[in-house]
Amino acid sequence: MRTSIATVSLSGTLTEKLTAAARAGFDGVEIFENDLTGSPLGPEEIRERAADLGLTIDLFQPMRDIEAVPADEFARNLRRAEHKFRLMRRLGTGTVLVCSSVSPYAVDDDALAAEQLHRLAGLAQESGVRVAYEALAWGRHVSTYEHAWRIVEAADHPALGVCLDSFHILARGSDVTGIEAIPGDRIFFLQLADAPQMALDVLQWSRHHRCFPGQGDLDVAGLVRAAVRAGYDGPLSLEVFNDVFRQADAGRTAVDARRSLTLLQESAGLTAPPAPVVPTGFAFVEIATADTARIAPLLTALGFSRTARHSGKPVDLWEQGEARILLNTDTGSHRPDPSLTAVGLESPDPAGAAARAESLLAPVLPRRRAPGDAPLDAVAAPDGTEFFFCVTDGPGDGQRSGDAGRSGWTGDFAPTPHTPAPIGITRVDHVALTQPWHHFDEATLFHRGVLGLRPHASVDLADPYGLLRSRAASNEDGTVRIALGVGASPTEDPARGGRPQHVALLTDDLVTTVRRALAAGSRLLPVPANYYDDLAAHHEFAPGELETYRELGILYDRDEKGEFRHCYTVTTGRVFFELVERGGGYDGYGARNAPVRLAAQHALAE
Amino acid sequence: MRTSIATVSLSGTLTEKLTAAARAGFDGVEIFENDLTGSPLGPEEIRERAADLGLTIDLFQPMRDIEAVPADEFARNLRRAEHKFRLMRRLGTGTVLVCSSVSPYAVDDDALAAEQLHRLAGLAQESGVRVAYEALAWGRHVSTYEHAWRIVEAADHPALGVCLDSFHILARGSDVTGIEAIPGDRIFFLQLADAPQMALDVLQWSRHHRCFPGQGDLDVAGLVRAAVRAGYDGPLSLEVFNDVFRQADAGRTAVDARRSLTLLQESAGLTAPPAPVVPTGFAFVEIATADTARIAPLLTALGFSRTARHSGKPVDLWEQGEARILLNTDTGSHRPDPSLTAVGLESPDPAGAAARAESLLAPVLPRRRAPGDAPLDAVAAPDGTEFFFCVTDGPGDGQRSGDAGRSGWTGDFAPTPHTPAPIGITRVDHVALTQPWHHFDEATLFHRGVLGLRPHASVDLADPYGLLRSRAASNEDGTVRIALGVGASPTEDPARGGRPQHVALLTDDLVTTVRRALAAGSRLLPVPANYYDDLAAHHEFAPGELETYRELGILYDRDEKGEFRHCYTVTTGRVFFELVERGGGYDGYGARNAPVRLAAQHALAE
């Protein structure tokens, strides 16, 4: 099916919006009246510009407060409509959206509404225009699609049909199966938007919090399926009012939108992009740093050994158990400080994962390849982090052959002599990536749709200087966990040197691991004594247990499934490490302790 | 009555919060548990720090999910409470807040709640602590203050009373007169917060959108009056959860908070600061600019003449009708571009206005005075704009004497030879001031409380790159109008060189004025042709009228009271001018046309 996007969903001038929509691969646009009114281009010029970009203009919107009004009011409305139909002819668009009236003059009279819409459709037909009537969820008398359809049916004019808007329908909790009773050729248009579930006035909810399908909680795919079953074959069009998209770069938003639409089509069974490939573990985490003087001692103190060096690039492999960290000193001058730049995901099908990513408009990175190197498929996430789809050959810990004939990425590394001194770390538990301020939903959809991870619930974390939002995504068995975080304000964007990222390392016995780390010279984040007083008030501990935590600076959490112990290193550059032990089936990230951690990090930074 | 503020209302570390509260003149604080837990200072150190700052610790908060639970759960709760009571003794605070339970284990059994609260109060009393029980608006079984009071009454323990929270009470629309039935000495605490009226889930509403009294829509003063009539004589304490305050500078927020509390006390009849002095007009608008090369020709083309020069400073007075603009070239190097820096308000009592401003913590500016100068009282608004309280001597238009013995500010100016060439401007209609991102509510309260203006409704304006919020404040007859605006993101802060400010100039005949302005060389903002097509669709005009608007770039609006015609100059530095004609009783600012104006300004800036 053809894809379309409303200009109101993108920021900038109309020209910028058209360009962004075309570049992201949309087939058409809905033009919002304000965008046209504010444009220095005349309707004919806009029509040409769209055609040059390969875009059709699928809808002009909206006309409001037309129907079920007194005769003199309706006469004025027809006059207005005539102006707009003329404009549409110049613009080359054949369908106009008419929203159900919110006018105080509108009366609750379906027969009058039908009669006036019939007359409007007649006028439209003369200009070659079709009228798509849509029930606003807050329409004065008409607020459900069933009601709008009854009126359209009664009006009985070939130039009159309905427009279905997923937000207006799903926000009211309407049953979408009724859509199948509408003849497909009378559904003139389908507008799609998702939204997070909110107990908010529906008008405010709609105007400020719509998002692209898959980024909210509404079953947009179910509605699309119903419309398709009804026989609808017009465009799938995104119409999203969102305060964030109004500010974000139009090109970026359009790509996010188009990705969302592909995933929606996949959910609705309309397209079949390459199947998702769920990663099975972390192959590596890469830290870029101009020199290793600061980070190498830190890794050593955490029990890592430098086991191998890349055959062609200044990249060292550090290992402990199944935890692998690459230190890349080929950073250019713009990243002097250690920062987390890439994540290797263990993939059962790297080529398949890359193909899916590409079909979902993820920027595919040039393969990093030197003569003899294993090719590595990689894409860039919305925050700029590079994700590599990898196969790691066993065995680990520097015992590899360096045989260039092997399939895994480790084949490119030549072992270096080293003396392992592990402290009990078994693997990477999770990585925590700070997202650009405006792009949290985009990131979540990316991690779900492109990387095949399952998003968990979003939580708010109280920092001394604002609320942070955090949302994890993981595979089913928890061997890949990525915590996406977003700062309290745009000034905390990663690009502006905002909040640090971190790598959490798993151990089966945190107390022993921490003792060894401290003995090896690790500097851990100090935890205030008040925290342990609070912990003592909340939980009972075995004799000596709490004292051990206090002594070592270990944080503690408990839920119905198990226990969580964790602690943090101090921050180096833009990176810090967390050491974690998961007891029982604890599936969280110690969110309860985040305020204490954040306060301690601020205190140390001062 | 004593004043207090909850630490959760301010950003930063506990130390920063205590310092900010003390500096703003609060008598005490409520300490929020998270602030203490995350602090590197122990309870005794916090107690000392507060005492050094002259602050009492009036409340420790909160304890949750205590009452009406099964026996084993309650035993755990008492254990937790015992820990916290010990902590409170170390902290030196005598009252603890207990919120009505939201626990899934809580049962709907008032007798059990009363019995358990009685036991809790007994335990508290042993530690010298009183328990203030508060109904959360979303409490599982207890959600109204009347219900909380019934349980407290039944529990019948001297160490148990109620805490009244204006948000929880008013958000539910409860009748506050019932408060007067509670004996004053059983009201242990009074927490005050306002909030904008929102149809939002009350928990989300409370957590993110509370604001200081007078910044929202709740009748907080009415509740305070009821509590005082009941005999309450404890602190008036602000407890505001707000996403903005979490990020804003604590010192600034504390001043805003303290100002709000003074205005609340005034509304409730508890204090009488110097009475408000409502301004009666604009005395002048001051534009600072390193040199006048860009702005002087623009003023000339708008029909202004340089009529006088200040006797001791590089400040020129430009006049037309009753519109007066000061060009100040004594700007220092940090403001090379023309920017709107000061507004002179015609005041019936400048000294009284300044006294009120000072009592409301407005930063009073050093009087600008040279030998022989009239002293001018001035304060700084939250956005940095300087407001002068003035008396302007007549007659205008450069006919003044320069006599140093006169009372008005114009006495300091010496007339300069000039040839008036007015284009029909009669006076300043309004000034539009861009506010810092986080400080819109603070600004509104300032303009109301300190300057004595009446705030109008807030409107959203669609800019191509985000929604702007705008809210006007005016005196009764509309001779002083200030439009406060805020950009779509923090990057649009005035301090960061964000959106321009503007001065709107009134004329009785815009068409004639614009023709003269154009003839004199004014450059006006071009308006897209599409705008006039849209206007033609919406309104009927006299023959030729629309064509005139189109020719001259005049925007048009109409409401039930009258008509509004306006147009804009291009922007110079950080300032542009608007020319407006108000027909009939039109009382707005042409918000409907703002998207077109904003799009045109963006187009021109590119």
TrEMBL record, chains A, B:
Positions of the VOC domain: 281-392, 427-582
Residues noted as binding a divalent metal cation in the record, renumbered to the chain: 134, 165, 191, 239
UniProt KW keywords: Dioxygenase, Isomerase, Lyase, Metal-binding, Oxidoreductase
Reaction(s) this enzyme catalyzes, per UniProt: 3-dehydroshikimate = 3,4-dihydroxybenzoate + H2O
InterPro entries with a match to the protein in the record: DSD, Glyas_Bleomycin-R_OHBP_Dase, Glyas_Fos-R_dOase_dom, IolE/XylAMocC-like, VOC_core, Xyl_isomerase-like_sf, Xyl_isomerase-like_TIM-brl
Residues that, per the record, bind Mg(2+): 430, 502, 578
Superkingdom of origin organism: Bacteria
Broad EC category: lyase
SUPFAM superfamilies cross-referenced by the UniProt entry: Glyoxalase/Bleomycin resistance protein/Dihydroxybiphenyl dioxygenase, Xylose isomerase-like
Pathway where this protein functions: Aromatic compound metabolism; 3,4-dihydroxybenzoate biosynthesis
EC number: 4.2.1.118
Required cofactor names: a divalent metal cation
A Gene Ontology molecular function term of the record: isomerase activity
Family designation: Belongs to the bacterial two-domain DSD family.
HAMAP family xrefs: DSD (MF_02238)
Biological role: Catalyzes the conversion of 3-dehydroshikimate to protocatechuate (3,4-dihydroxybenzoate), a common intermediate of quinate and shikimate degradation pathways.
Protein name, entry field: 3-dehydroshikimate dehydratase
Species annotation: Streptomyces mutomycini
